[in-house]
Amino acid sequence: WFSGLIPEDDTALSTTMAAYGVPPALGVAPEMMEEISTGTTIMACQYDGGVVLGADSRTSTGTYVANRASDKITMVTDNVWMCRSGSAADTQNVCAYVKNLTEEHNMQRRGDLDPGMADVKLVANLTMQLAYKNKDKLSAGMIIGGWDATLGAQVYGIPLGGSMQRVPFTVGGSGSAYIYGWCDNTWRENMTREEAEGWVARAISLAIARDASSGGVVRLVTIHSKGSSRQMLEPKHQSLCESELPVIPRKVGGVVG
Question: How confident is the model at residue 256, as a pLDDT?
């Protein structure tokens, strides 16, 4: 059934696969080694007193949904969180490295001062350094958001390539192309916490409605001077986009939910 996919001659096979950078021991046809597209929607914004981070929950592998309830918002420290887009494996490892480096820094410099806390800019710089130095190997776009006593609420965008910029709000992932205009048009400075959470949830709901690679539930993390909290909005609680059909309630064990 795989006739024609790989050369019958072992020498020709090794030469062909080496040209594609595939070790011959893997026995994988070069034609099957295509890049897999991924997609997501992540964003963060400042409000008057803190930061709201949001993300959808769909992990896609090309046209296949590998995980419909993934968590793309990861805690680095108690007051700093990271939104991840791109390759899940790449961003998970970057986040693990940053978390370890931050913990080491805290033990050496901060001691017992505010255990579990860190400067938001420090975490963003560590993430930027890892992303930039490995830009040819990683497919990772990240957003760092948090609150500290030095600079207050902060949002840093770290897109593919490893650059870094502090911004009042930022959007990432494949779904960002569908909502950037809406975000620019509706963004307001000094929003209240409730307004910021509603704004982020609405933006991600719009991206889910238009982007096939985004979907599932909407996850929100709110960070402020007194700590952080998490929310999850199921599809039936998300705002409908224009011409979008409503979610049909399902019966589970005779109960509509």
Answer: 53
